[in-house]
Amino acid sequence: MRQHAVNVLGAAADAPFPDLRDCDHPDGLVAVGGDLSRTRLLNAYRQGIFPWYEPGGPILWWSPDPRAILIPGHVHVSRRLARTLRQRRFEVSIDRDFVGVIDGCAEPREDSAGTWITAEMRSAYINLHAHGDAHSLEVWRDGMLAGGLYGVAIGGIFFAESKFHHQRDASKVALVELMMRLERLGYLLCDCQLWNPHLEHFGVRMVARADFVRLVHHGIGLSPAPLQDFD
Fold it and tell me: For 55, how many CA atoms within 13 A lie in the half-sphere containing its CB?
């Protein structure tokens, strides 16, 4: 069985990540260790890397190849979902309840007994939100949080992290509403990390990691209007 070398990150928050051209793990694992400080997280996203690990385990850093992305202006919306959007049954907001959204995303799913959003991850992204780096999109129904999503925005790239719903279609509405905002504000792409059947319905595209990294390096240099300007 072939062995794949995985880098151990240095203790300093600004310790460099490995060159992705030297990373050949089949699942995209590129490094282990470090912390979830703001400096390290933003450095990771700028290089197309994100954290994902099990509770109680070491912090693992990933950059899958290929990478799943959605392009603003090129998202497929089904007729039924388009009808739901036209009916305006839901109210949408930006950054009104980031904690409520991340806590909703951390709830156990029907197909899983646990969650990857550990207490450490939760605190780290709430800190990013406090600094204006992470944002939430909330979907409301009758004054109650029905669904939403959150992610990290750097330049013209939105790195989506997780979504949830308490009512039917709420997470789908959140994704479409996000993509509408990204298109209007001039974002280049939305990173979805990994393919899944849900994203396939929206026209997800799979791009080679090297191409994704080039897109990120270009996109983070853009200066779109803030997401809150659309709210």
Answer: 9
* CA 149 – CA 153 distance, rounded (Å): 13
Please provide residue 160's backbone torsions phi and psi, each rounded to the nearest 5 degrees.
-70, 135
151-9-118 Cα angle (round to 5): 40
Amino acid at 130: A
Domain that holds residue 30: 7-64
Predicted confidence (pLDDT) per residue in 206-224, tens digit: 999 999 999 999 999 999 9
Cα–Cα distance between 61 and 17 in angstroms, integer? 9
Work out the burial of residue 148: count CB atoms within 10 Å of its CB; fewer than 13 is exposed, 13-18 middle, 19 or more buried: buried
Task: Look at residue 1 and tell me if it is in a domain.
Answer: no
pTM over 0.85: yes
pLDDT tens, 184-206? 999 999 999 999 998 999 999 99
Residue 2, domain member (yes or no): no
Residue 88 in tokens: 């305006």
* CA angle at 68 for the pair 224 and 230, rounded to the nearest 5°: 25
